[in-house]
Amino acid sequence: MKKEKSIVKSGIILSLMTFASRIMGLIRESTKAAFLGTGLFADCFSVAFQIPNLLRRLFAENAISVAFIPTFKEYLKKGDDEQSRKETQEFIASTLTLVTFLTACIVIIGILITPWITPIFCKKPVLEKLQFLPDFPHFFPLFGKVSLNIDPAEYQQQMDYWLSQRSEITILTRIMFPYLFLISIAAFFQGVLNGCNIFAPSGFTPVLFNSIVIAATYILAPHTSNPARAMAIGVISGGSIQAIFQWPFIRKTGWKIHLTSLKKTFSNPGTRKVVSLIVPTIIGIAAYQLNDLVSTSMATRAGEGIASSLQYSLRLQELILGIFAVSIGTVILPDMSGLANEQKWDEFNGILIQAIKIMTLISIPVTAYSLVTGKELISLLYKTKMFDDDSVALTLSEFRFHIAGLLFIALNRIISPAFYAQGNTKLPTLAGIISFATNILFVFILIKPMGGQGIALALSLASFINTIFLFIFMRRMHSIQIKKVLKESVLYALRIGVFAVIAAVPCYFVRPLLVNAFDGYGRVIAYGVPILITALIYFAVGVLELVITKDDIVKAILKKVRKS
């Protein structure tokens, strides 16, 4: 039997892989910025990729993680005798058949109905607009509207843009829709490997994906109608490699990967349990992911460049989020599932508290530093001829509101596995639905006065509400020591928050001096050197604070790293 890995050791391995993938993701976005900027094709690609990506998260990664892994772990606990292995093998084949059958059907339907989906993201111009008079509230439309005639030349220009936008989104969506099928298979392979406590191969596949997208853009852009189509072809190619790369590692586990009949698939008890867990989870994940879909739809209607700039901002945020939150969340789910099955609740709560504190120790300082140096970070990563000062300013204005919600998004990735590990998907689902409703409400309230900034702020507020309700719902989980978890989490967050502000003060005053000193030396030096120096100052002050106060989490991490 393989020895169980510790959270820290597994987390470090996966974090390194995820760090590499996020770096490549940023390079991919930098490539997109260089070829597309924040113009028409950038918005079209952002929208087109959003649709299959939404379904990917819905049916692939998260659903497989919260439903497949805990069930797979239960099968593995039965033993290594012939009968147990046969049952586990049948479960694996049935689940793979279910995943491939459903996603294949969705891809076919999606490609066919794409022309009817794209108008959601495109605001058709009209020759005569209705505008509410300021003296009348919006809920009295009959008394508060007047007609405004639009200049025919302006109308024709808007109509041409609308037709181009709609046509390009349709083409790009159809090119990338099969990505759902490919990435679902890759996610299933990841579920098998993670269930066997093998994390590195799955952690490395996004590196391959991003590398292929980047290479395809540079190679194919001169030979396609526009660079967005070259990137779309890269997405399909990258999805294929993500699945193929994991195949040899699956074979080494000893489990065979093959399909079975639909009759056996829907009658298999393990697969039926996965379905029962996935259905409420899909509702919750759908609520969360629909936030992005609705926000993207509103962004494309709000003006040119807003949809793509929001994606650039989110990509920068996800660099930090993906390195730690996704890594730690992925690692603790199998461990929590095992402890829950053995009813070792003290250890279960210990893992949860430690994971929350680690995320707090990372998220709050990163948020404070990003607020100080956001302009330099965005300029270093994206600024080119196509991504000019206006694009930087637009992305920065949204990034400041995105990064404000980093802690809560990270905590949601950590707290939810505590429910999933015990087979409870309903409570996180309910929290997700509440979060979705909150986000939609805030988007409609804030988008008119704040534009893209309002969409970013709405997401952060919704993530905060989601975290609040997850803590509230913990009261119903008698296995979780809610008072202890909440008390230690809040006190630690307040403490780290004070440390982060203190460490950010010298960076705030030093930053403009460094920016002026290196201005005109080229993008890498002009923005990279100020970021490097301020980061070193920030890190030094932060470490000094933790050493002086003898931080328990830092001591625990160092202790486990030495043991591993």
Q: Can you summarize this structure?
A:
By secondary structure, this protein is an all-alpha fold. 81% of the residues lie in helices and 2% in strands.
Describe this structure in words.
With 564 residues, the protein is an all-alpha fold. Helix content is 81%, strand content 2%. It has 18 helices and two strands. The protein has helices at residues 7-36, 40-77, 82-117, 152-176, 179-195, 200-220, 227-252, 262-267, 269-302, 306-341, 345-382, 389-403, 406-420, 426-450, 452-473, 482-517, 523-548, 552-563, and strands at 128-132, 145-149. A two-stranded antiparallel sheet has the order 1-2. Mean pLDDT is 80; it is low at 1-5 and 130-147.
List keywords for this structure.
18 helices, disordered N terminus, 564 residues, two-stranded antiparallel ribbon, mainly alpha, 2 strands, 2% strand, single chain
What proportion of the residues is helical, as a percent range? over 70%
**What is the average of the pLDDT values?**
80
Task: Characterize the main sheet.
Answer: 2 strands, antiparallel
Low-confidence segments, given as residue ranges, are 1-5, 130-147
Number of helices: 18
- Measure the end-to-end span: 18 Å
| Helix and strand run | HHHEEHHHHHHHHHHHHHHH
Described by the principal axes of the CA atoms, the overall outline is: globular
Major β-sheet strand ordering: 1-2
- Would you count the extended β strands for me? 2
Strand content: under 5%
Radius of gyration (Å): 24 Å
Structural category is mainly alpha
